[in-house]
Amino acid sequence: MKPQDIEPFFAALQAANPQPNTELEYTNVFELLAAVLLSAQATDVGVNKATRRLFPVANTPQAVLELGLDGLEGYIKTIGLYRTKAKNLMQTCRILVEQHGGQVPRTREALEALPGVGRKTANVVLNVAFGQPTMAVDTHIFRVGNRTGLAPGKNPLAVEMQLLQRVPPQYLVDAHHWLILLGRYVCQARKPRCWECVVAPWCDYEPKTPAPFNAG
User: Fold this and answer.
1) Is 58 exposed, middle or buried (0-12, 13-18, 19+ CB in 10 A)?
2) Residue 57 lies in a domain
3) Are residues 154 and 81 in the same domain?
4) Residue 34: closest CA among 62, 1, 8
5) Is residue 94 one of the residues assigned to a domain?
6) Number of domains the chain is built from
7) What are 193-214's pLDDT values in tens digits?
8) Which of 64, 72, 104, 212 could form a disulfide with 29 if both were Cys (CB 3.0 to 4.6 A apart)?
9) The pLDDT value given to residue 214
10) 172 within some domain
11) What span, in angstroms and rounded, lies between the C-alpha atoms of 99 and 113?
12) Of 2, 49, 77, 120, which residue is the catalytic one?
């Protein structure tokens, strides 16, 4: 993608969705952290289904600890890898209570020290909860970055670094959401819906997928 195409690319995404947000459901920063931790190799829909049961009962680190491991597993057992995630979340809650006064820390170093929290999860929390211009690269953003030519890279960190360099500053806080939604619903893995894409004019992908015969 040519440098001069990047600004109109993001302007089009902004025009189509001026206030993007995560599709994970949460009402406080701890709920967001817990939901993102549970979302690894799971869908947001599946995580939301579980947290709608969990959060009314336990939406603070102390409340989760009081549930106990077996109790927590009962609420999240519909999510893949739930046993490992339950252990990580319990250990994370213990650290939050013992070392952070029950609050979610605002630094990457402290977040990545929590069990089950890697760079991507930390980036989501820093961006969504604290408004920091981070870029959490999941499979969708990795695909969009490479396919469009916006941020080619052989691994998620390479794509992240490219995006941080190439995304205009005024779009950086929201770029993570726009690119995830683009990859999830339009720039899909097997058959990108190029005929519906608002950024197709600036995308390097060729040949563009034509509209189905019955798409009108």
Assistant:
1) buried
2) yes
3) no
4) 62
5) yes
6) 2
7) 999 999 999 999 999 999 987 6
8) 104
9) 67
10) yes
11) 11
12) 120
